[in-house]
Amino acid sequence: MRSLAEAWVAGVPVEWGALFAGSGAVRVDLPTYAFDHQRYWPKPTEATKATTTADPVDAALWELIDGDQDRMAAALDLDGDTAALVAPALSAWRERRRARATVDSWRYGDSWAPLSEPETAEPAGRWLVVVPRGWKDDPWLRSVVAELGEELTLAEAPAPDRAALAESFAAYAGEDFAGVLSLAAFAQEEGEHPATDVPQGLALSLTVVQALTDAEVTGRVWWATRGAVSIGGNDRVIEPGLAVLWGMGRVAALEMPARWGGLLDLPVEFDARAGQRLRAVLYGESGEDQVAVRSSGVFGRRLVRLPVGVVKRPGGWVPSGTVLITGGTGGLGG
At 329, phi and psi to the nearest 5? Predict the structure, then answer.
């Protein structure tokens, strides 16, 4: 029998029916594997009934509220009608607080944390700086380029033409760039009526990254904006049109992790101090990839929990002068 089994395992056909004919043998199902039913998934902790169980007084109070109303009325020296109104109201309030606490745990928002003042750093190699057409006519762009130092190569990106840019960038394929800073976000719209709704700066910035990859130009790419984010307080968004690059930049970071360097928002008043901080962020090794440089320091973007808080109901609108109302002469206004 063992030899037949070894032959069967080796692929030799065996007439098992003839072998067991007249023996009364029947086919049976093999037992399944004895799986261990022990679970290894983490068990969620059960929410406590009271909002604060550490305080025995609070625990006793909520025990009264959740218990018999007559007992609560006697303990709190209330009449029965008052207890019948108070107990459900307090229980409903606590349930609302629990629900809001649950929603709070789902909500997140942006926050900007001050970073330690970066030390002055020297570039590990030559940097490629991509500038838009006509950048020399912009004093702000000229000052940014001037503060980057001498170890850089300037490349002009005139238009969001991927093939043309890749052909232009091919001249730098042999260079071993330490990084790439794109100032293409500041490209001006061509003509009074752009051919597309996509902002010129966004289209050019994205095309620059694609063309650099096509031309096999090395170096992680940083996008620079100006006044596109607010770090809070009195810091306002000066150029909201550039904020779209921060949304696209985060997508690019996920799609091209080996190509991406980071996002950098610069101040409107760009002086030597800002230039020093810019060089420290680009040439240093802070590990930050979403940075805002301000006159008060350098800030890194953080994802923090965002409680719902108290909902503020908007007040009525109080006009400050004559108001013209149009479009209300039809079925809605008539």
Answer: -95, 0
Token pair for 196: 């597309």
8 A C-beta contact, residue 228 and residue 249: no
> Residues near 112 by Cβ (< 8 Å), separated by ≥ 6?
229, 231, 232, 292, 299, 300, 301, 302
DSSP helix/strand/coil, 261: strand
CA distance 190 to 12: 79
This prediction's pTM: 0.65
Burial class (CB in 10 A: 0-12, 13-18, 19+), 277: buried
Q: Give Dmax (Cα) for the chain.
A: 108
Do residues 177 and 222 lie in contact, with contact meaning Cβ atoms separated by under 8 Å? no
Distance CA 4, CA 14 (A): 7
> With contact defined as beta carbons under 8 Å apart, do 196 and 150 qualify?
no
The one-letter code for the residue type at 102 is T
Share of the chain above pLDDT 70, in %: 90
What crossing angle do the helices spanning 80-104 and 56-66 adopt, rounded to 10°? Answer: 120
Which of 214, 204, 72 shows the shortest CA–CA distance to 133?
204
Residue with tokens 């800030």: 299
pLDDT digits (tens, 9 = 90+) for 205-248: 999 999 999 999 999 999 999 999 999 888 999 999 999 999 99
> How far is 309 from 101, CA to CA, in rounded Å?
10
